[in-house]
Each structure stands twice: as C-alpha cells, then as structure tokens.
Amino acid sequence: MAASYVAVLAVAASLLLLLLVSWKRWRQGRAKWHVIIVVLGDVGRSPRMQYHALSFVKSGFSVTLLGFCNSRPYDELLQNNRIQIVSLTELQKLPVGPYIFQYGVKVVFQSVHLLWKLICREPAAYIFLQNPPGLPAIAVCWFVGCLCGSKLVIDWHNYGYSIMGLVHGPSHGLVVLAKWYEKLCGRLSHLNLCVTNSMREDLAENWGIKAVTVYDKPASFFKETPLDLQHQLFMKLGRTYSAFKARSELLDPATERSAFTERDAQSGLVTHLRGRPALLVSSTSWTEDEDFSILLAALEKFEQLILDGESLPSLVCVITGKGPLKEYYSGLISQKCFQHIQVCTPWLEAEDYPLLLGSADLGVCLHKSSSGLDLPMKVVDMFGCCLPVCAVSFRCLHELVKHEENGLVFKDSEELAAQLQKLFSKFPDPAGKLSQFRKNLRESEQLRWDESWKQTVLPLVMDT
User: Fold this and answer.
1) 248-300: pLDDT as tens digits
2) Residue 241 CB neighbours (<10 A)
3) Is residue 37 classed as helix, strand or coil in its secondary structure?
4) Are residues 150 and 129 in the same domain?
5) CATH at 420
6) How far apart are CA 75 and CA 239, in angstroms?
7) Which family is this sequence assigned to (predicted)?
8) Coarse DSSP helix, strand, coil percentages of the chain, rounded to the nearest 5 percent
9) pTM reported for the whole predicted model
10) Which residue, 42, 120, 144, 270, has fewest beta-carbon neighbours within 10 Å?
11) Which helix or strand (DSSP H or E) is residue 419 part of?
C-alpha cells in the first residue's frame, strides 16, 4: 500500500514538474516575441520610440509601451491590437520645499512607480529605453531585466545631464550627479543605439560605452502634400487661425478660397493663389535649447526689407508645438507690429502636422543641441516632405543638413534674415534657390524609417 502512495506521489511530482517546465517554456516563448518600450516622457511627443514600436510589431513582436499620455500618439499605434500603451503617472511639482527635495521625491516616486509597472507586465525579451530622461529609468529597467531575464537596450537621443545644465548650469550638484549616473548606469545595457556618429564617438571616448549609430529617418506619412489636400488643410485651419483665411472677399461665389489656394466649385480644380504669401513652418518643444528670438529678429529685418521696396512676398509663419516657454515667446510675438508677416502658434492634430510640412515653402529649425551631439528629428521629417530647411548651426548638424544642398545653415538673426531674403526673392520662382533645394531633396535617395530599421536595428537586436 505504501508503495502505491509513493508511486502516486512520484507521478504527481513528475506531472507538477512537467507542468512547471512547460509553463516556464511557454512564458519564455512569449517573452521571446515581446518587447517593452519605456519612455519616461510624453509618448505622443516621442516619434522615434513610436516608430520603434510599430517596426517591432511589423517584425512579429508584441509591444508594451510605457510612458506619459499627455499627447495623442499616432493613430497607427492606437489602432494596432499588438501594441499595449500603459500610462505612467506623472508626479506634478510639489508646492513646498527646496528644489533638491522636490527632485528627490520625484525620483523616488518614479523609481517605485516604474518598477511596479514593469514587474506587473508579461516578461519581455527586451526592454527598450529612451534616454534622456534616464534618471531613474536606466537603473530600474536594468534591475527588472535582471529579475525577468530581459535584455536592456538604451536608445541615446541626447544626454540628460546636458539638458539639465541648460537650466541649472553645468556645475550644479544635480547636473554633476546626473552625469555620473548616466555614465555609470549606461554601461549596464546589453546594446546601445545613438542618433549621430558624433555621439557614438563621444560615448566611446568619454563614457566607455560602445554604441551603434541609427540615424532618424522620416516615416512614410511625411511626404509632399497634394494640392487638393493642402487646400482642405488650409480651409480647416482657417476656421481657427486667421492666418490661413482668404485675404479678400470672394468675387466668384463658386470659388472656395484660403490664404494660399482656391478651389473651383464646378471643376473641383485646386490652384495656388496669385500673389499668395509664403508659408514658413517651424516646430518646437518650446525649451531652452531653442532660441526663438533669433527667428523673431530675422522676421523684423525681413519686414523692413519689404517696407524698403524689396520684391519679397508676405509671410505666414507657423510655429507649432507645446512646451514650458511657449507663453513667454507668445508674449514677445504679441508685441510685434508686423504689416506683412503673420505669426501663429497652433497645436496641430497628429495627422495634420505631416500635411502642414508637406504644404510649406520653407522650414526653420532653431534646435541647438544641449550636448552638440544629437540631431533635430523635426528636420528629418521636413526632409521627408521635401521641405528645404534653414537651421541654426551646431557641432554635428552637418550629418543632416548639407549647406547649399538641401538647405542653409545660419549662426544668428542677421544670417537668417539674409537667407530668407535670398530664398524668397521673386517668390515663387520655379528656377529659384528654394525650388532647387526641393529638387535636390526629391532626387536624393532617402531611406524611410521602415527600410532603415530592418537593415540596422532588427539585426542588432536579434543578435543581442
């Protein structure tokens, strides 16, 4: 009888062990095709990480995307049932206590909150982390990876300490601490990606971190906008922003007109208005690394040139984005008394932003990297739309903007004003410099994000 009990127990133990092994293998199998992407920031304003998520899904993975949900992500992301977006709670600024105390509380809260959110997820083969911000995310993601067998991949967009240095100064204690933390914890990852060759070299020489350059590429929806869609966009925006409205009353009631285009109601044909204003576009996060006083000063000089009799068009300048310094610059803009220039600062819907870039005549970029080592993705998107760009100069900009090939590089408002004069002289001249830049962009063989990702990121990840 005892032997029978022993046999039953042995069989039960064997079955339990078999079930545990099968369950573990099942979990490992699921983990192999699962990726967790962590953005300790606004998911909707993190296009590169959204592109990573979509690319992983197209390659057969399921994706969990953790981040703040302050802005709407791309519809393609929201509509994909293999992408789960998990909202992180953003701790608001405490009303009391010194700044260091407030920052310490924020770091502790984010550490515990992120740890809990990661532990509660299904195990993943990879934890894909955007840096910055990396404090405290790098250490937390590494710790969870050790517990769950996930490999940590850091995508270096910039340095967090250099961004903090814009506000507090490079010698501030928190900035020094953040630099030490990034340098130490950045070495814990299994794979490092970065956005420029200059950053790759800096990581290797000064941080002892080996990284692979993965240049930003435009998504497929960043392209030139057909004229009929331009007209639809202008009419839509004209309902909210006067800069897009027609300048004069319609003489023909059968014609629908915006500030830039008109549509014949009978034929449906859309054409550009004769004597239309030029459309200049800039996008921004309204942070300390973009000095919009440069653009405003250049616009004042451009206005004076028109008043002096130069053959230049009126301008509509659209600055789109959200950020902490928007109110400050909006105040400066409201003080300007332009006669031939209109400036508006809309926050566009996600699907309208590519259409606007594809409709514009010129892009202006005032992003001046805090580290000098990252590139503005807004220019990548503009180039995807074949939109020529004037960009403020910094250390590694040449890796993206080729002066006199796909745009112009300036140092100050004087140079920018001279470039605006040069590009818009006799506008819209099909033989002008602006048209030549656009032609060069059309003819350049630009890889789109999907093709580039499959050639670079996917092989790296699968070999890790």
Assistant:
1) 765 566 678 999 999 988 888 999 998 899 999 999 888 888 899 999 999 99
2) 17
3) strand
4) yes
5) 3.40.50.2000
6) 24
7) Belongs to the glycosyltransferase group 1 family. Glycosyltransferase 33 subfamily.
8) 45, 20, 35
9) 0.86
10) 120
11) helix 413-424
